[in-house]
Amino acid sequence: MAVMGSRWWGLSLRIIGGATLIVSLGMASMVAIAEARLRKQVSSVHGSSPQVEAGLLMRVLNFLWQKGLYGYTHVWPDMKFGWRIVVGTIIGFFGAALGSVGGVGGGGIFVPMLTLIIGFDAKSSTAISKCMITGAAASTVYYNLKRRHPTLDLPVIDYDLALLFQPMLVLGISIGVAFNVIFADWMITVLLIILFIGTSTKAFLKGVETWKKETLLKQEAARRLESNGNLDDDDNEEVEYKPLPGGPSGEGEAENKGPKKEEVSIMENVYWKELGLLFAVWCAILALEIAKNYTTTCSMAYWALNLLQIPVAVGVSSYEAVSLYKGRRKIASKGETGTNWRAHQLVLYCACGVLAGMVGGLLGLGGGFILGPLFLDLGIPPQVSSATATFAMTFSASMSVVEYYLLKRFPVPYALYFVAVATVAAFVGQFVVRKLINLLGRASLIIFILSFTIFVSAISLGGVGIENMIEKIEHHEYMGFENICSYEA
């Protein structure tokens, strides 16, 4: 556990360091663009002078913030049947199917589809994407409520893991939605490309590692069957599939207790105490968000209601973290290795939960883009990782939908239609991939789907963002921060 923790810690530091470097380069490039543009404008009027260089910093700040200027106006196309709706439905269907299986939601595919095909502006696409993620996540959770852990006698959803991350995820969503209003599109694009390339690479490497482990286990099972020579084909299939790479070390004991049911009743499979606590956090923060909507933006009451979300979320996650640290609770899906935790690990994981929520609210994506790879690094089996990330994402995504609705960020008819598409697609995706895993005996399929979805999202969203950035630069449009206190839907 200590070796794995130190390895993950080191890898996390390298990723954060690399991300910081790339952000710095991105910011520097945008400042250079701003400098060239402003220098050209000033020189055309006044000619070159030493004062131009002296005032460079002020002009850069002026580029990023100009009082009374706004770069955002929403674009909502009319809802009518045509090729755009048909193509958008097909892309949205496959995006929801892949996203639900990988536990990432599919927002990286939804946002470009809504922007390029349907014709929404970037921020409205973000809001509708959250609606689609909520529909897909809710149907996936319903599908998983009856399912059991692939090797242990536990639910496939790890409720203790969700209790550690979900409150921080919901808190991060509120921060991310506010940043979505404030940040310019090019800033969101830079952050998105950095995040997605890093997480997709990490997930792919984890998939390759898991694939190799599965291959070794299959070879071992084949040798065992060949030496015994008395097992039929049905037994062969069973032995090949049961060992799950990346799972807990103590899974052998669970397997030897006899046949394990893949599904049980919802009443038996759900941990109601943990679910009730998660729902209470969701309701408390939702109530604060609704109350905030009836206050004047940026007033004392507005900021007080915002700050009240912190003790609610931090309190519940801290309770779970302290219980894990002292051994009163454990991440059961990790087996015996789920009982030893260090304080710095728990703090880092809670911070990752906030970051995942911020990414979700800011970019219109599911927090699973961060939680999925993180759970895999913790040694959680792919099926449990996907199910638990989606479960936590349901709370955070639905919170985003309410907040975007209060901000009047999306047209309801379009949202309802695409929610229906995503809901059906999630059911189909879960069913098909579950059959493929049973047929091939490779749970790493989920990890590769996760990596592929994130990588495609990086290319599509990054491409759209860069194109919009270049267009705004050419037209000399305002590209600075928006004023949240003056925001009007």
Low-confidence stretches: 1-11, 13-50, 236-258
**Which structural class fits the helix and strand makeup?**
mainly alpha
Order of helices and strands: HHHHHHHHHHHHHHHHHH
Beta percentage is under 5%
Biggest sheet character: none
Beta strand count: 0
InterPro entries: TM_pro_TauE-like (IPR002781)
Main location: membrane
Transmembrane segments: 12-34, 85-115, 186-205, 270-288, 300-325, 346-375, 387-407, 414-433, 445-466
Membrane topology: Multi-pass membrane protein
Concise synopsis of the structure shown:
The protein contains 18 helices and no strands. The protein is mostly helical. It has two domains: 20-64, no CATH class; 68-477, no CATH class.
Structural features, described:
One of its GO terms (biological process) is protein ubiquitination. Pfam families: TauE (PF01925). Belongs to the 4-toluene sulfonate uptake permease (TSUP) (TC 2.A.102) family. The chain is mainly α and 489 residues long. The protein has two domains: 20-64, no CATH class; 68-477, no CATH class. 75% of the residues lie in helices and 0% in strands. It contains 18 helices and no strands. The chain is globular. It starts with a helix and ends in a 15-residue tail after the last helix. The relative contact order is 0.20. The model is unreliable at 1-11, 13-50 and 236-258 (pLDDT under 50).
